[in-house]
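W.,

You were right to be curious about this one. When I first looked at the sequence I had no strong expectations either way, so I just let the prediction run and decided to look at it fresh. Below is the sequence, 320 residues in total, followed by the output.
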Amino acid sequence: MRNYLEFEKGLAEIEGKAEELRAMARQNPEMDVEDEAKALDAKAETLLGELYGGLTPWRKCQVARHPDRPHCKDYIDALFQEYTPLAGDRNFADDHAVMGGLARFNDQPVVVIGHEKGHDTKTRIERNFGMARPEGYRKAARLMDLADRFKLPVITIVDTQGAYPGKGAEERGQSEAIARATEKCLQIGVPLVAVIIGEGGSGGAVAFAASDRLAMLEHSVYSVISPEGCAAILWKDSEKMREAAEALRLTAQDLEKLSIADMVIPEPMGGAHRDREAAISSVGEAIQDMLSDLEAGDGAALVSARRQRFLDLGKTPLAI
């Protein structure tokens, strides 16, 4: 059964009526309802185009958080071969919110790292809804070190509302772990490409996305704080999240204009969750394009260019 977002209620009613007609026809083969069902399909398609043709930043946040969007594990299973997971930070524990290991991408050996949110209640709890603890970031830094040692490109898949803010995480050095992972991104002498597939929240996302190239899915978001958190701080009212989403400039389109994102990956009409295979395929093509663009660079040049990329951010204000 398809999950619908709040602003898709009208679409849900139309598609639901079309399915009801077809269900009645399956029960009674003598009924001829296909013309009516097709008319409803056409109406739904038109409405879908209208809804997704002009999404507000807040609605893009909702789409980015849709529970049926492909998650990190889906991309790894579909795009990578011979994936061998590597666990643990060699210090405290293994964080299931971060998955990573050795793999082949289009027959090229790589290290892949990403946030995994889970797809049902059990796996979401196991993965802590994609919110990594310090050991997750330390595991990521360890895998980047491994990639640097063996000269393997690093591919990161970002999808988190932010690092886990719990007491235990803070006691084990959450901010230090995020800083070390971000520092490691800037130090490794191998190509590092990142894709934001849903939410890119706060330092928990930056720790994976301080990369040579950054791509974002069309309806993904990337921000220093969630709209709800921003609204609670600035307006003392989390219900002002729509205004906050506008002010944060967190959409892929805004961030491409600001030169933070290098590429916006088109999604199927209605979002990645409506055609998961097409969305995953588009991400694979984007990763290949970014890696191909970096093949000629040596280690020192990559590190220098990566550092300069971030030093240059914000030098030229853009009116957006």
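Here's what jumped out at me. The chain has a mean pLDDT of 92. And, maybe more interesting for your project: The longest helix spans residues 34-53.

Coffee later to discuss?

I.
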